[in-house]
Amino acid sequence: MELDVSSRVGGSGAGVNILSCSGNLDLETVDIFTGAALPLLGTDGKPLIIDLSGVDFIDSMGLSGLIAALTHAREAELGLDLVVNTERVSRLLSLTGVDALLPIHESLQGALASN
Q1: What pLDDT digit, counting tens, does each position of 6-33 carry?
Q2: Secondary structure class of 35 (helix, strand, coil)
Q3: CA nearest to 56, candidates 17, 84, 96
Q4: Nearest 5 degrees, angle CA 112-CA 92-CA 18?
Q5: Domain 3-114 CATH (choose: 3.30.750.24, 2.60.120.260, 3.90.1150.10, 1.20.1270.10)
Q6: Nearest to 40 by CA among 9, 1, 71
Q7: How would you list the strands of the sheet with 104-105, edge to edge?
Q8: In sequence order, what are the residues at sequence separation of 6 or more whose Cβ sits closer than 8 angstroms to the Cβ of residue 20?
Q9: Residue 6 or residue 81, greater confidence
């Protein structure tokens, strides 16, 4: 399955960039993800919200893509939040400890409100 990504620079007028993903974040699609996410970090000094609410599956390479985005955000001193509303993805982030590294929200509205 593919990964579809779309971005909104300065999304919702909240002064953040938003990257929405749907499909699988895995070995076959991690390059698409990082190719979309990393340029949004540091280009305009705005934090990034990665909306994973449409993602059904993440493997170890997908996790490495999320960690790469987090590393890039920290180097640029920018905020990075995730939106996760599926039990499967939420559980994976919890089991791997990724949930302790960055804010995770159940909705895009919640993520926007925290920024």
Answers
A1: 877 665 556 889 999 999 999 999 999 9
A2: helix
A3: 84
A4: 25
A5: 3.30.750.24
A6: 9
A7: 3-11, 16-25, 48-58, 80-83, 104-105
A8: 5, 6, 7, 8, 51, 53, 54
A9: 81
